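Allow me, if you will, to draw on your knowledge of protein folds for a short while. The matter concerns a single protein, recorded as an amino acid sequence and a row of backbone structure tokens. Kindly check, if you would, that the fold set down in the tokens agrees with what the sequence suggests. You will find the record immediately after this paragraph.
***
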Amino acid sequence: MMVIGTTSVHQKPSPPPENIMLDTIRTFVENHTHQPLDAIDELTPGASARQYFRVHLREQTFIVSHTQDKTTFDDFLDIQKYLDAIHIPVPQVFAYDENQHLILQSDAGNQPLTKVVQEDGVESERIKRLYIQAVEMIAQMQFSQSPAPSAAFTRAFDTSKFWFEWDVHLQKYVINGFAEKVFTEPDLNRLRRFYGEIIRHLASQPRYFCHRDFQSSNLMVTADDRLLIVDFQDARLGLAQYDLVSLIEDVYVPLPAALKIELIDHYLKKVAQLTGKPVEKASFMMYYDLTLIQRKLHDAGSFARAYLDLGKPQFLPYIPQCLHTVIHTMKGDRLNAALGCLHR
């Protein structure tokens, strides 16, 4: 959900939501709650094209989400039901409108983990406890069993998906957009061959439930310091390392190296506890690095798209940061030793 700000309809919002949307939301909420609606706040998502609104009733608030895409709407409902069934904390759904693609859900509050880290400081014991809780949730999502089917298990980070991310995120928005004329043709050929080698390794690995955007902005901190997951509608099967990389290597919250190591070790212990089998760390970390490279190339494309298509310049500084992480990881001794076949 990645809430980074609000504007009240009682003030002059910038830019204002269309009146017809506000009227539609008002009717939808009042029909399902049987209470008069006092106010609507438009919540500003980050790099998302989805819309979120906080609706105020007499004694409580709810979140209403809206998307123009039916698949996104259906997937949110499907995966919310699945995660709730395996006891992963997610917003509760109270009502939805299939024609308008509106969902009335519980209010997760205004405290994403990103904001809590900024307030408490990344070195605090509270933040460490919250991150440990987060890595345990990753392991629980991956190794919990549920008889309920889910759309997440019908799609995966496979070779086709990885190449799609190259074409749509990296090629279109970074190479041809943000960094136009920076790369020569030989540079592009080398980069494409390197990317192909990476995804060949990644696509060969076992796959598990993967949130896909398991980062601090999508983890809400409740009043009792529990985490609640949002923005899960794109979940699919992926590498065990994928959500871990998204959390630990989050551009919004740079973590100290020592904490990164501690969180990875805690995750590996949790997986061993859940499965009864130890995880071979050296191999795990090799694929962690490969996943990190692929994920940061994807992120750079997402931030470039947010700027070029959605007109959100606040995401520009994250693009070079992502590319720097890619270069740093490519030069790392751990990856060089494990994959000598990759020429940098």
Notes: Residues 81 and 214 are 18 Å apart (CA to CA). The radius of gyration is 21 Å. The chain is about 50% helix and 10% strand. The chain has two domains: 6-106, 113-338.
